[in-house]
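Now for a chain:

_____
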Amino acid sequence: DSVPFTLNGSLNPFHPARRGNIKFVINDFPLTSFTDQLKKQVDINTTHGDISVVDNLTWGNGIANRNSDVVFTDVEPLPNKTDAAMTMALLTRENGQFPFKVATQLSLKSMPTSLVTDASNAFKKLTLKAAVSPLLLTNEDFAGLIGQEYAEFEPGTILLTGKGQESLARFSKLLQAYQAIGITITGSVDSTIDAEAMKKHLEDVEFQRVEAENSRRKDALQKATEEYLAQTAEKQKSSGKGANGAEPKIPKEISRRYALIKPEKVVIDKTMLQDLAKERARVAEELFTQSLALAPERIGLDKKIVINSDQEAPGNRVLFTLGTVEKTHEK
């Protein structure tokens, strides 16, 4: 009763379209007054906070149009209501105000709807968007991130590609623009792309190891052979027996000792893939918090990892999930 409001309007009953309009304005009205109407329709806590409304209702030609501005102030979502929490995290301003628009059109022959109902439906549409993709509630600067919630790595490595680095930078800007949200990182690996790259790399390493070892063995065999021949010649000389012209046979034990080896077979197992996925997530987290200077509590690591086998959606990446800072920190 202590909150003032204004109400004005006009009506032209003699106009063929029978046009009219009403404007209702009220500011900082306690939200508790609407608890009964709102508690079954929207996932917000109505025990505290205020609501301000500029309600514009026009009609003509049998159609009523509502174009209104609603502002919640110091309002919180109900516990465990993720979509409502994300909606409010993205759209609440630094001053605690959560503004949104209400736009409806209705035939004058239909049952009229109240502003509370229309506002509740408008809020539910916002939460539905947040459920589909929180990025739908961000400004146009970040529209291009929809469907691109990942950062790509070079196959088989923990090195980001150029596009992967760009992706991290863009999501960093998103978090700078929306201070109440965070990112959870899920490590991912591709069972084909990454496995093949890892196998090739390890095969190259094994080949180089074998090449170096065989080179050492050849040199050692040459040296051992020369020493054996020198010792044999010295023994023959000491015994007074001259060389009989035949080349002394090299003992098999010397040949066996320095026999050339073959590369070992390289096998990429599940544990190796899992370790790569975890390490990629750790690298992304480090880049976000150190290189891009985001607060650690805004970056979470998912305990789960993804081993991808879908050829149409490569898995050599980390995946990003947006959430409130509170939910991100919990993870």
